[in-house]
Every structure is written in structure tokens, then in C-alpha cells.
Amino acid sequence: MFEGNQVKLAIAPIGWTNDDMPELGGDITFEQCISEMALAGFSGSEVGNKYPRNTAVLKKTLSLRGLEIASAWFSAFLTSRPLEETAEAFKAHRDFLLEMGAKVIVVSEQGNSIQGQMETALFDRKPVFSDEEWQLLATGLQHLGDLAAEKDMKIVYHHHMGTGVQTAEEIDRLMAETDPVKVSLLYDTGHLVFSGEDYLQVLYKHIDRIHHVHLKDVRIDLANKVREEKLSFLQAVKAGVFTVPGDGGIDFKPVFEALDAAGYKGWMVVEAEQDPHLANPFEYAVKARQYIRETSGL
Ligand SMILES: O=C1C[C@@H](O)[C@H](O)[C@@H](O)C1=O
Ligand SMILES: [Co+2]
What InterPro entries does this protein map onto (predicted)? Predict the structure, then answer.
């Protein structure tokens, strides 16, 4: 599978140091994180809060280890703040990623999101957008897509637990209401399975719009416990709901087969946030790399 070097494999720093909960991995240095990524056999990374923002410094530090930047997360507030505010912040983020050689920009709408709230029950309190908010989101994302296209880049929308675009139905609506030229999709296995969606159906339905992939596995027993015990997203992460591919309940083989058959080009990013003191990030990175090699040949 994946012949022709069109698909590259990255790993996100969130298993080492967690931007949503900086206390997780607070003691792990940036250099340890990227050195272990390279040693585990990855060729790219996304951007974490410990990464230097000076692009020359960042490029040199990464290239010493054979790593590139695949992309980085951007929080949009299109449903809750003026469009200009999100657009201005987006341009700075886009230009940083352009300088780092990335082609896609991860965007997630955070208007009314509960993903960062420690005590809010994830399955009871996620936002549900009104028609007016959907309109603001679609228009705003298309504007961000135009700004990305100015630099020959794309935005890839990150559906996410605890946000207004979480379920398969919400992803369908977002895809239907946006121009495929302007808005692409980031496919994150972990968020779909945690939400209770059919992750393969979403993949097959939107495969032509998928231009970035997050490979995240789910411990299904913990996902059920989060629902039953009304835990928050951050409590779920701390409890270990996510893990690396091959260690949880998701079968990634059909994901790789479908992406390969569709001629997918771009990055696949292992992204498995858990407490680094409970799950050694280097050990789990090696485990993920081995599973992907065995399952996809990559
Ligand atoms: O892509 C992601 C970025 C994180 O900050 C987020 O919380 C995580 O779950 C994710 O999928
Ligand atoms: Co993700």
C-alpha cells in the first residue's frame, strides 16, 4: 500500500506535551519530544506549545532530525466573534505554516466548544449550531479557504468532540454547505469512534475531500465510561480514552486500504494524547510505527 512516496507519516507532540492540559508532560523538553519522534521512525510532526516560533530555529532543529512540519491546529471563532478577528489570526498562522513548508492548515471551530472545560459532561453539553451559526461557519470557512489559496494552501476542517461539528450528520452538513475547492476535511478516526459514529462510512462518503488524517485509537471501555459517568473531554483524555493505532479498538486496515485505493496524497499523523507518565510517549510512538508498518506497509 501507499507506493510512490506520496504519503508521509508524522506524529503529533500531544503524546509528549499536551497543549490543552500543559501539566501533562510539563517536564518533557521540546528536544526530547522531537528526538524521540525521529528515533521512532517518523518524518514529520505537528506543532506543540513548546516548539520555537522562530521559523529558522524551528527548521534547523527539526531538519537535524529529518523532520518536517505537517501542519498545526488553528482555533476559529466564526460563530461567536467577528469574522475579521478570526481572519487576522488565521493569516499569521497561515504565514507561519507557509514558511515551515506545510501545505494544509488544520481548522476547528471553537465557538461554544466545551472541549477545554474540565468539568462539563461531554455527551450532554456539546453545542448544537443554529441555522444562523451554520451559515456563519460555512461563510467564514470559505473565506479562510480563500486566504489559504492565496498561498497555494488548503484548510482541512477538524471535526472534534465537544464542538458543533462532531457527529457524522454534522460533518455531512458542513461538507454540503461548503465549496469543496475551499474547504477540505481532516479525518480523525479517534474523534469519530469516541462520538459513536461509523468511522468507515464517514471515510467512504467524504474521501474525495479528505486532505489530512489523524490516526488516533480509542479504548472503547473508557469511551463508554465517559458517557455513563458524564465525564468531560479533558477528564476522558486523562483517563486514557485515546491511544496510538494498534493499541485500542479501531481497525485501521480498512482505513489504509480506502485511502490507498483513493490515491490519497499527504500526511497521516499519529495523534494519541494520554498522560505521558502513564503511557511512555517514546514506547507508544514505536508501537504505533510498528503497527502502521505491519498493517499498511508504510
Ligand atoms: O487534533 C487534535 C488537536 C488537539 O488539541 C485536540 O484536543 C485533539 O483531540 C485532536 O484531535
Ligand atoms: Co486530531
Answer: IolE, IolE/MocC, IolE/XylAMocC-like, Xyl_isomerase-like_sf, Xyl_isomerase-like_TIM-brl
Top-tier CATH class for 7-296: alpha beta
The per-residue pLDDT for range 224-239, each reduced to its tens digit, is: 999 999 999 999 999 9
Q: Is the CB of residue 143 less than 8 Å from the CB of residue 83?
A: yes
Task: Give burial (CB, 10 Å; 0-12/13-18/19+) of 174.
Answer: buried
5 — pLDDT class (breaks 50, 70, 90): confident
Quote the cell numbers at residue 77: 471563532
Closest atom of ligand 1 to 161 CA is 9
Q: Which of 298, 283, 278, 266 is nearest to 70 (CA)?
A: 266
Which of 17, 24, 47, 73 to mutate for ligand 1's pocket (most ligand atoms within 8 Å of CB)?
73
Question: Which pLDDT band, with edges at 50, 70 and 90, does 287 fall under?
Answer: very high
C-alpha to C-alpha distance for 95 and 237, rounded to whole angstroms: 31
pTM to 2 decimals? 0.98
pLDDT in tens, 208-220: 999 999 999 999 9
Distances (CA, A) of 164 to 81, 87, 119, 127, 173: 15, 19, 18, 5, 11
AA letter at 41 = G
Answer whether 252 contacts ligand 1 (Cβ < 6 A).
no
C-alpha cell at 16: 509528549
What are the sequence ranges of the domains in the chain?
7-296
Rounded to the nearest angstrom, the distance between the alpha carbon of 238 and the centre of ligand 1 is 13
| Whole-number Å distance between alpha carbons of 39 and 65 | 8
